[in-house]
Amino acid sequence: MDTDKRRGTTAPPAAGAPPDAASAAGARIPRQLWVEEPATRRRMPDPVRTAAVRAVLIMSLTIIQALVAFLCTLAGSWLAFPMVLGGVASTVVATWSVLDVWVTRQVWNQRNGVVSVPSSSARRMRRERRIARRGARARARGEARIRRRGEGRLSRA
Fold it and tell me: Least enclosed by CB within 10 Å: which of 77, 80, 121, 152?
């Protein structure tokens, strides 16, 4: 049974196709409104995403300002010179904002230890801390067991 995706209607089955009870009666097959697809990449951390949005907004305003300065220059307007000076300043700010995204990403990765390299130092440090915690718990259990075994008696004799 072929379903027309645009209209949600059903077409007659092809020759030799097995009959289906719902489609044989000519019932409409409901389409899903929302199809969940797995994400191809992880979501950016919030500080990095904030810096990236800020950088995109600043860059778009810089491009608009450069275009206005260019058009004012072609028209011979008095506004051309101030717009060119503003364009130079906004170019510096846009470059700074892009560097801010890069620095924010690096700082977040260092603070949170998210490095995708298998031999990363962050993963090794987590492993060492986990082994140390397990050892501390095992020692605490052993000491508690020794104290329980000797309770209530003065000697073993």
Answer: 152
